[in-house]
């Protein structure tokens, strides 16, 4: 089973636009769980334009499935996650002010720094994941720093899906096989949506978790949150023979 973790950044963005606590992120998180989501993700950025650092502890209190906190491992970020102890922390190499995530870590060049951070998180009782591109050398670097999991940056897959989905998924399928050989757990995310999700999941049999925010929250404007989560769960449960049907 591939777990669906709903990223609530865009819900936080709406909340922040008026300064009050509406929509209430904690309530939306628990409703997502009630509607079938198997995890909740937020990605607080240094400017806190959507998810904020103080959301982490509040969500930790309320989330009963799995809480995944993504972000750049600044000292501030590390202090917040080590105090709150989410189930998983996903390290992302974003510059402050970056619009959104657009690449994975250099696990070779930044090996020592990443290994120290992963050790701190592991000693804090937190499962670790690092955001990566589907490159075998980078995966070997990820195994060397002893992260529990990797999260594939799926932006290039999403961009290529419409023109040639087999070509778009091929590097991820190959990298997933290599990651599994290396003993790494496998997550994925970025720009996954109702069109491209089922095929990706079917082509990566070792995939364990996807985190989806932007498209899912946008779809919820049309279908409602409960229906939308069901649609995403259906995409994750479809077998190969059903792939064309779900588009
Ligand atoms: C790591 C990743 O791909 C997601 O966390 C994504 O960056 C969501 O962040 P935004 O909602 O800020 O685009
Ligand atoms: N890790 C990816 C994530 O949480 C959500 O990315 P997106 O669906 O908002 O592009």
TrEMBL record:
Its EC number is 2.6.99.2. It is an enzyme of class 2 (transferase). GO terms for cellular component: cytosol. It is found in: Cytoplasm. 1-deoxy-D-xylulose 5-phosphate binds at residues 45, 50, 100. Pathway: Cofactor biosynthesis; pyridoxine 5'-phosphate biosynthesis; pyridoxine 5'-phosphate from D-erythrose 4-phosphate: step 5/5. GO terms for molecular function: pyridoxine 5'-phosphate synthase activity. Keywords: Cytoplasm, Pyridoxine biosynthesis, Transferase. The record marks 151 as: Transition state stabilizer. One of its GO terms (biological process) is pyridoxine biosynthetic process. The active site is at 43 (proton acceptor), 70 (proton acceptor), 190 (proton donor). Homooctamer; tetramer of dimers. Belongs to the PNP synthase family. NCBIfam families: pdxJ, PRK05265.1-3, PRK05265.1-4. This is Pyridoxine 5'-phosphate synthase. It comes from Neolewinella litorea. The gene is pdxJ.
